Amino acid sequence: MRGFSLAWRSVIRKPVKSILLFVTVFTISLLLLAGMSSGKATVQMQDNTRQAVGAGLLLEENEADRHRRIDELSRQLDHKEGSLGGYHQEKITINGVENWRTWTDNSFETLLVEDIEKIAGTEGIADYNITTVTTAARPVGFIRIEDEDVDQYSDLGGVSLVGNKDMSMDSNFLSGNAFIMDGRMIKEGEKDVCVISAELADKNQLEIGSRISFGNCRNKEDPMVYEAEVVGIYQVNQPIAPYMYGDTYRSENIIFTDLDFPEKVDGKAGDPLYEKAYFKIADVDEYEAVKISVMGVDIAWERYDLIDNNGNMNTLSANFNEMEKYSRTLVWVISGAGLIILFLIFQFWMKSRNREIGIMLSMGTSKIRILAQIMAEALMIAAVAVLVSFLAAPGVSGLTADYLVEQQVQSAGEQDLLDEGKVALSYEKSEQNVVGVQAEITSGMLIQDVSGIALLIVISVCVSGIGILKRNPKDILQDL
After folding, report:
1. Would you state the pLDDT for residue 286?
2. Residue 330: its H or E element
3. How far apart, in whole angstroms, are the C-alpha atoms of residue 337 and residue 331?
4. How confident is the model at residue 377 (pLDDT cuts 50, 70, 90)?
């Protein structure tokens, strides 16, 4: 108690030194919190090409997280052939040169059914649909629609299969662009059924009840053929946007099927590839409340994009270019710079208190006790500075996150300009705009901040106090 009293009186007696340390610790604490919160910030974006239709939410894979998972699995495999978590790599030799071949399978790429079901169980969700990736299939016994003026050499020569759990909630039919002109939609739970376009039906004289067959489009030698019954014929107001270039994916060649049919034709029965999930909200007036509840579901959200009916989605900083990496670097730079500055401040403290320290040593006060008093003074000032920084942290964190996002957007834009004309894409890149950034200060960040500041002060005081521990009172007093 006496040591605490001495430390407090020393803080009051030397206001300039106390204020200097207060300002320094306040700044370090504030910047550390800003850096940590920016690394965990949520970037609110609007995608002009992907929107949930009506009163619903759309779940899709996050492309940035996909690349991150590939990099992580590749590092774990190191320079060895093998497979891990749906990622595969092997060595191949081309013209005498050894290269690596890498690929992923459906188990890596698909939306996880358990995550979809967790979201579907949220209060306020009335129903949900799962849609497969567009799968190329070889037409057997019927002719697809082709553009006679286009060279078909590089095309797969197939048609496209799109499977749905509930076809009525497929985005093309929800939006009203596609509609049934004859027959009906596919019901949930049906097997080996399909709905074809009016153009495909006319070209092949197909009608409701006709049966058409499909084979593996990528392996022409595969003898397996799968048959499906036509239960509906659809028409569109505007051509459906193709999944990729080529007549295989043109609007007229898109065939809607039951959920399990595409994986069978592709030779991957039991190993589906689900591209997106749609969740229908029961009460449109509760849309925002249900959306917030869905975002609170305990799943690995970094794996997904949750998109609302305005194209808005929240992207974790880990998936937003290299924002998390820069935030982590910022924290380390602040910590290193803070340690150096605190060391210099305590060096100044020690030198300005040579007389006091020398007298205390002459009176028999132990060196450890003197260091403990200086440590107590520093921690008292730091405690006040850290508490004050907590009050200012939310505002500064928001500004820091905004700045980092702006820099990332600018950097990405410059890279796109450099890549323009150099990289050929087989799809239309989605147009995304940042509409907001949410940086939150969590209790975990506060604990890390307090622990970090305390550690920096302890290290700085101990290193600065080496001079006291090595010298005797006479030498210290001779320096006066």
Report:
1. 87
2. helix 323-352
3. 10
4. confident
Rounded to an integer, the average pLDDT of 4-30 is 73
Calpha distance 121→128 (Å, rounded): 10
The Cα–Cα gap between 253 and 160 comes to 6
pLDDT in tens, 152-176: 777 888 999 999 999 999 988 888 8
Query: Residue 305 pairs with which residues in a beta bridge?
Result: 60
The answer to whether the beta carbons of residues 157 and 138 sit under 8 Å apart is yes
Residue 388's identity, in one-letter code, is V
3-class DSSP state for residue 217? coil
Element (H, E) at 433: strand 432-438
Q: Note the pLDDT tens digit of each residue in 176-197.
A: 889 999 999 999 989 999 999 9
Query: What is the value of pTM for the model shown?
Result: 0.63
Pair 217, 138: CB distance under 8 Å:
yes
Q: What are the backbone angles phi and psi of residue 188, rounded to the nearest 5°? A: -60, 130
Tokens of 475: 């030498």
Rounded distance, CA 321 to CA 380, Å? 40
Amino acid at site 17: K
Nearest CA among 236, 225, 143, 233 for reference residue 192: 225
Residue type, 379: L
Q: What is the DSSP string of 65-102?
A: HHHHHHHHHHHHH-SS-EEETTEEEEEEEETTEEEEEE
Alpha-carbon torsion (130, 104, 300, 50), positive or negative: negative
Q: Please report the pLDDT score of residue 430 as a whole number.
A: 47
- In DSSP notation, 145-207 reads ---TTS--TTS---EEEEEESSGGGSHHHHTTSEEEEEE-PPPTT--SEEEEEHHHHHHHT--
Antiparallel, parallel or unpaired: β 254-258 and 159-164 = parallel
Helix (H, G, I), strand (E, B) or coil at 405: helix
CA atoms within 13 A on the CB side of 239: 10
Q: Which of 204, 172, 319, 192 is nearest to 260 (CA)?
A: 192
Tell me what the mean pLDDT of segment 109-130 comes to. Answer: 93
Provide the 10 A C-beta neighbour count for residue 161: 27
Distance CA 293, CA 282 (A): 13
**DSSP characters over 107-158:** HHHSPPHHHHHHHHTSTTEEEEEEEEPPEEEEEESS-----TTS--TTS---
Tokens of 375: 């440590």
Q: How far apart are CA 69 and CA 392, in angstroms?
A: 36
Tokens of 266: 């592709």
**405 vs 134, more confident:** 134
Q: Report the side by side order of strands in the sheet with 87-94.
A: 82-84, 87-94, 97-104
Q: What is the average per-residue pLDDT within 223-241? A: 92
